[in-house]
Amino acid sequence: MTQQLAGKAALVTGGGSGIGRASALALAAEGAVVTVAGRTQESLKETVRRMEAAGGTARCVLADVTREPDVERAVEAAVEGVGRLDITLNNAGYDGEFQYTWEYDAEMLDRMIAVNTRGAFLSMKHELRHMVAQGSGVIVNMASGAGLVGVTGAVIPVDGGYTVP
Ligand SMILES: NC(=O)c1ccc[n+]([C@@H]2O[C@H](COP(=O)([O-])OP(=O)(O)OC[C@H]3O[C@@H](n4cnc5c(N)ncnc54)[C@H](O)[C@@H]3O)[C@@H](O)[C@H]2O)c1
């Protein structure tokens, strides 16, 4: 690795698993001070353990991205000690279940919007306060091809196995 992110502070939400964990590891390998945020202490600690084992600088913070005080705390944790916020990956996401529209649980839809839309908004709100003040910064909002294309009879597209009756 080139250490091209040395001295930079990064925040990854949903950093305790999957793409968030892999991205956090990649950022740390390039020298960024990485904070991972999420709802499960054990999985976040495991991501930190892996970053540190690879020589990176990392920490974690418990945060539910649907709750504004949590998001604010996560952003402040990422800034702490570095004094700036350079890179954020707003990756925390909830996909819900695969169900037809006429069977779909509206509360599941509410949860999806709360995590994926409100969560991304709250994250940007508090990240941008630092980035605007410092005059720089990069925000990546995780999305999905499922937001761009649809399948007749399904609420969201499915990779086979779920056909229109
Ligand atoms: N894997 C794919 O094929 C794929 C495709 C398109 C988009 N995505 C998106 O990529 C992102 C990561 O997905 P993944 O595949 O790594 O799955 P994942 O389930 O491993 O990652 C999602 C993470 O978000 C966390 N999370 C959920 N709700 C949260 C909340 N309220 N507050 C904080 N953290 C919360 C989960 O605990 C988990 O760690 C998601 O936003 C997902 O929608 C994934």
How would the blueprint of this fold be written?
Blueprint: E1 9-13, H1 18-29, E2 33-38, H2 41-53, E3 57-62, H3 68-79, E4 87-90, H4 106-134, E5 138-141
Parallel strand pairs: 1-2, 1-4, 2-3, 4-5
Bound molecules: nicotinamide-adenine-dinucleotide.
Nicotinamide-adenine-dinucleotide binds next to helix 1 and helix 4.
Low-pLDDT segments, ≥5 res: 160-165
Number of strands: 5
Largest sheet: 5 strands, parallel
First-to-last CA distance = 51 Å
What is the class in the CATH system? Alpha Beta
User: In the CATH hierarchy, what is the architecture at level 2?
Assistant: 3-Layer(aba) Sandwich
What is the domain total for the residues? 1
Helix content: 40-55%
Range of strand content: 15-25%
Structural class of the secondary elements?
alpha/beta
Specify the CATH homologous superfamily. NAD(P)-binding Rossmann-like Domain
Assembly context of the chains: single chain
Q: What Rg is obtained from the alpha carbons, in whole angstroms?
A: 17 Å
Compounds present?
nicotinamide-adenine-dinucleotide
CATH topology: Rossmann fold
Structure, described:
- The chain is of the alpha/beta class and 165 residues long.
- The chain has one domain: 3-Layer(aba) Sandwich (Rossmann fold), CATH 3.40.50.720.
- Helix content is 40%, strand content 15%.
- It has four helices and five strands.
- It has helices spanning 18-29, 41-53, 68-79, 106-134, and strands spanning 9-13, 33-38, 57-62, 87-90, 138-141.
- It has a five-stranded parallel β-sheet with strand order 3-2-1-4-5, sandwiched between helices.
- Strand 2 (33-38), helix 2 (41-53) and strand 3 form a beta-alpha-beta unit.
- The structure holds nicotinamide-adenine-dinucleotide.
- Nicotinamide-adenine-dinucleotide (NAD) binds at residues 13-14, 16-20, 38-40, 64-66, 91-95, 115, 119, 142, 144.
